[in-house]
């Protein structure tokens, strides 16, 4: 296996995992269950669970649906993470 492709695959998996963690953190910050987020985003609860665990590499259209389901925030705000995470990054 090409080592460059292997490293790239690892980086992609890490980014997908980070995205899932962001979804989980925002959902919890907003006091939502997976079922509530699924309902508001038009996705299945099992899909939300797979996203949060990093099992799925979503399309951008799916990310927009999730962000929309989380409420009134921009994708940039979503990617920056909840305030509690931003505070941890500063220290």
From TrEMBL:
Annotated InterPro entries: Cro/C1-type_HTH, Lambda_DNA-bd_dom_sf
Family annotation (SUPFAM superfamilies): lambda repressor-like DNA-binding domains
Start and end residues of each HTH cro/C1-type domain: 23-78
Name listed for the protein in its UniProt record: Helix-turn-helix domain-containing protein
Natural source organism: Veillonella fallax
């Amino acid at each position: 296996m090409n080592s460059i492709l292997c490293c790239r695959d690892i980086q992609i998996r890490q980014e997908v995992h980070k995205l899932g963690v962001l979804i989980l953190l925002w959902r919890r910050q907003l006091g939502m269950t997976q079922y509530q987020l699924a309902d508001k985003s038009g996705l299945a609860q099992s899909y939300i669970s797979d996203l949060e665990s990093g099992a799925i590499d979503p399309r951008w259209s799916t990310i927009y649906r999730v962000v929309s389901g989380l409420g009134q925030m921009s994708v940039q705000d979503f990617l920056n993470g909840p305030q509690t995470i931003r505070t941890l990054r500063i220290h």
